Predict the structure of Ankyrin repeat domain-containing protein.
Amino acid sequence: MPVLHHAIKAAVMRSRWLRQTLREEEPWQPRNTAERADAAYDALHLLLESGADVQALDSYGNSSLGRAVLDARQVLPRHRHNDPEWADPKPLNPELVDDLTRVFDSLMAHGADPNRTERDLGGSLAEYHRAEPVAQFLHV
């Protein structure tokens, strides 16, 4: 996996996503702090500004934007392709939206293309994930 992909994974996983608690009065709690999210994003931003290749693929053929999508799907509310009427009870908090927006926007500002055909998808990320919560970060 390219170093850039590790930084993407860190920036997404250290974003301020919500995890479920066992407390009725506070059923959802942020997983990370703003400081952790900022530090991980800063490392990603530094790599991008230093010329890291956003077109580099990992050993599975995932692009950097594909890596971001795969990781973001782990922290966003779930989507079931076979049951589009189902709604995940996990809320989408504004802090997570802010954190993921800057990750995706930075990748695209450095040349990542959500409309490029991905080898294993048979289409683009934007097309394949258009019905999912992650689509908002691909500007679909």
Q: What stands out?
A: The first helix runs from residue 3 to 13. The beta strands are 18-20, 28-30, 117-118, 123-124. Residues 61 and 120 are 7 Å apart (CA to CA).
